[in-house]
Design a protein that fits this description.
By secondary structure, the protein is of the alpha+beta class. The chain has 1 helix and 8 strands. The protein is rod-shaped, with a radius of gyration of 29 Å.
């Protein structure tokens, strides 16, 4: 009597099923990874904005208080009666007073606009909006940080 030795091998269908399952699990893992990268990028951008705005807001308020009455407020600059200026220059916010410039680099993807608010019974306020830009370098009107500084006197 002869004995038949059986060799355990996987069939082609079993191998294809395992490869398909591994591919599905890998696809799900990559999907979760890319979603987490997107969320991480979003919160990193927000943290950079908060840090930048914190530094700029303190300097803006002291600069406005120190230079007094404004002469002109445009979306890209503020001019004071004493000749001091706050302006945007190539993604840098430049404060000029007495011939001395102090500039702050804005994070990539951000822009600043200025406006003037006049509320009845209150001194005018210079408002600086730090806006996020979209991929086409256009302002995202729903994503901004507003910083206000009170002004002595009026503006045009």
């Amino acid at each position: 009597m002869s004995t038949v030795k059986r060799i355990n091998r996987f069939s082609l269908i079993e191998m294809l099923a395992v490869i398909g399952l591994v591919g599905l699990l890998l696809n799900m893992a990559l999907l979760f990874y890319y979603k987490s990268q997107k969320i991480n990028s979003k919160y990193t951008d927000k943290a950079v904005q908060i840090k930048s705005v914190s530094v700029v807001s303190k300097y803006l308020r002291s600069f406005v208080h120190g230079n007094g009455e404004t002469f002109m407020v445009k979306p890209d600059k503020v001019v004071f009666n004493n000749g001091s200026v706050i302006a945007m220059d190539n993604n840098r916010l430049v404060f000029t007073a007495g011939g001395v410039d102090k500039s702050f680099a804005l994070p990539k993807g951000f822009a600043v606009t200025f406006s003037l608010e006049n509320s009845q019974g209150e001194p005018p306020r210079i408002v600086m909006n730090v806006n996020m830009l979209n991929s086409k370098d256009q302002l995202q009107l729903n994503k901004y940080t507003r910083i206000a500084a009170c002004v002595e006197g009026g503006a045009q």
